[in-house]
């Protein structure tokens, strides 16, 4: 009898302790538990990722995966000429795919010859690029070399608005937002940023305000332009610039419409939307019209799969105005934690994403950035998560199949165990979650990414000048394929 009593008393004590811990955790300082600046209440997981994981059997045939990896690593990837240029052959192990970035590199080459030209990059990512981390450093590197001023396209609302330094934005709390992470059938099509916003509060003012940031090459808001969608009803927007108010009408006739706030540069402005509740609002673009511009389309919790839901007609309408030359897909953080090392389901889904991009932005170069290193505790010791390398190889596989360039961020930052070093070194370059980079680390990653892209560009210039010197006649542009490697969807 006493034994049972002691058991129930012990159980009650443990239960009460657990409840107390959970309760106190809510009011204790966050830093006790994590050094990450991410606001977990705003972290979303996209519905397509959850569906893909649920449908996947999570089976793992280690023998077939090992054999296919061995076959891939043992063969050369030989490229067809594009415009008379052929990069040296590669192996799957060291694959970078500069050959598939030729159209982007040619645009840079023309920009270098004529500074009035323009090159534009769309950088899609997850929480790794939240608050313009990494992307702002890629942008700065390109603008430092090739010219350009401005932060590019900025959404109406954002979870990271308060932490972003490259542009400051505040907004009223009565915006209705639909995101491609958790809405399959939006009221109106998503914009190029994966969101659509509605000023649907008729009783209160719905507004957004922007102020130029302090980052280099973003100290002014150049050629501020509003992007909005189609509607059967018109609306109005009042732009408040200093002491002046400029009243303009919204004419939502096209799939995508633009409205310039004013010509030239601004330091700040406020936009009040009036009787515009039925009009889809997408965001504002800021650039000076020359040089390189890089748009950051980050979204916490994103796997990359939701891009496959884009409306291609709407994307082409955006592209008519923005004219992209390179689209970067930087994902992986939200794909690692689902108890599997067989990512064939993710390859299949991301192949749909890449195909949607090709349909939406014809002729654009595509770059896949792999997952970074991530550490997990095994037997009381922090080690590289066992899912990192399989996911990285799967990302490399679909990059090769999709004829996209590839950045192996895992090896670029140091490979096995590198995240531990980035966290533990002084000063630290990553947070204690052993997943996300801090400001210092993000800058280092941005520089590494730019470095690899620029190395490919320098090689391209040599090959191009050699072609011109030899008088090689460029062949018609055709779809390039690796000659000597056969890749199947279940290879990795």
From TrEMBL:
The protein's matches in CDD domains, at most eight in alphabetical order, are given as: SGNH_hydrolase_peri1
Keywords for this entry?
A: Membrane, Transmembrane, Transmembrane helix
Report domain SGNH hydrolase-type esterase positions.
293-443
InterPro entries under this entry? SGNH_hydro, SGNH_hydro_sf
Q: Which Pfam families match?
A: Lipase_GDSL_2
Q: Where is this region: Disordered?
A: 467-492
Q: Where are the transmembrane segments?
A: 6-24
Source organism superkingdom: Bacteria
The entry's protein name is SGNH hydrolase-type esterase domain-containing protein
